[in-house]
Amino acid sequence: MLSKDFTHSVVILIISTIVVASFSILVLVVPNLVRTDEIRATSLAKPLTALEVAGRDVYISEGCHVCHTQMVRGIEPEIKRDGRANKEGDDIYEFPNLWGSKRTGPDLTNLGRKYSAQWQRLHLINPRQVVPTSLMPSYPWLFRQVLSGDEIENKMRVLQGLGVPYTESEIERSRLAVKGVTKGEALIHYLQSLGNDTASDQER
Q1: Dihedral of CA 37/32/163/88: which sign?
Q2: C-alpha span between 181 and 174 (Å, rounded)
Q3: 51, 89, 160, 169: most buried by Cβ count inside 10 Å?
Q4: Distance between CA atoms of residues 168 and 177, nearest Å
Q5: How far is CA 114 from the centre of its chain?
Q6: pTM listed for this prediction
Q7: Contact status, residue 195 vs residue 112, Cβ threshold 8 Å
């Protein structure tokens, strides 16, 4: 009887949900809020430039994060293949985080230290030209679509409000840094930034 009442009670369901959600907030969110300054002090992460922010937007809009992760787990084969495992402070300026979970393509955490900008360009235009077995779609039109830069200032102000330490000067110059650049070039700038801020950390 008790089991039936418990499983059919809407009130108990609501109370249970509130308790679980409260516990999750307490355990996952509160410690990070308290430790933000400590994490930031030890982090090697650097804020993205205006052009890299624009490229990240292209990365998200094209769904790149669906097939690629940006999180090297502390597993020996992954560390040997993709570099040192991610640390807590690596992504403090990432909003939203692009860790991902599906690895149709390789992990991109340290991609910027692996290939040249020219390689990235060839790979985006025709992946099979540099990786014959690649399943990735081609994105040649990204190099024909030009960014206006009209929205980048507002985006950087939002990021500044979330804690990314952009200066007013950086924000004011952001539109000129992005205007006239193709989506493909902006995406390459973002891809080439991946892993460079943690390059000095050689821990394995």
Answers
A1: positive
A2: 12
A3: 51
A4: 14
A5: 18
A6: 0.80
A7: yes
